[in-house]
Design goal:
binds magnesium ion, two-stranded antiparallel ribbon, alpha/beta, globular, 6-stranded parallel β-sheet, 192 residues, 16% strand, 8 strands, Rossmann fold
Length: 192
């Protein structure tokens, strides 16, 4: 089955700090042109989806607010399933933010299944038609493998090639940067 949607980790994958990683901007635009669906994930609950979308726009990546998923937005969706309405995520994780934010990140961020399920719902695709692209073995690659997605590791963040040897979480593909993703997408991507 072909990959129709990509789920991107942000920090270490799309950017580092305020700088895009090599090839990030061009790759996202190429994937968009090919009709792939993209979403962007962040484990950090203290910034809004809007703030991330604005940051991506500033860096030259056209991303919509609803294409950004944070652990607080995952929390809000889970609460909505129980309570029937979507609470204001900012209110939910209000003071004391530092402690509550870390809890939200731990329970609802990667590698929890909640975050990947929210991403799949937003994409409207089954896991076997999606690929997770990230720089961390124990979160990004783990969450992809545990949920039936294709796992793509990039070396633009925290993981070094030698880290792969002893990891229980092995990616399906390894790229030195996002610049190599369009070529991989030609092989694994498609609509059917
Ligand atoms: Mg990362």
């Amino acid at each position: 089955m072909k990959v129709a949607g990509y789920i991107f980790d942000l920090d270490g994958t799309i950017y580092r700090g305020d700088r895009l990683t090599f090839g990030a901007c061009q790759t996202i635009r190429i994937l968009q042109k090919r009709g792939r669906k993209n979403v962007f994930l962040s484990n950090k609950p203290l910034f809004s989806r809007k703030a991330y979308a604005e940051k991506l726009w500033t860096l030259g990546i056209p991303a919509q607010e609803d294409e950004v998923i944070t652990s607080s937005c995952v929390l809000a969706r889970e609460l909505a399933k129980e309570d029937g309405e979507i609470p204001d995520a900012a209110a939910v994780i209000a003071a004391p933010q530092a402690t509550t934010g870390r809890k939200v990140e731990k329970i609802f961020g990667k590698p929890s299944r909640y975050m990947i399920q929210t991403a799949l719902e937003v994409l409207g695709l089954p896991p076997e038609k999606c690929a997770m692209v990230g720089d961390r073995l124990e979160t990004d690659i783990r969450t992809a493998k545990e949920n039936g997605l294709t796992a793509i590791l990039v070396f633009t963040g925290v993981t070094r090639p030698e880290d792969l040897r002893n990891s229980p979480f092995q990616p399906d593909y390894v790229l030195s940067s996002l610049a190599e993703l369009p070529a991989l997408d030609e092989k694994i991507g498609g609509d059917e």
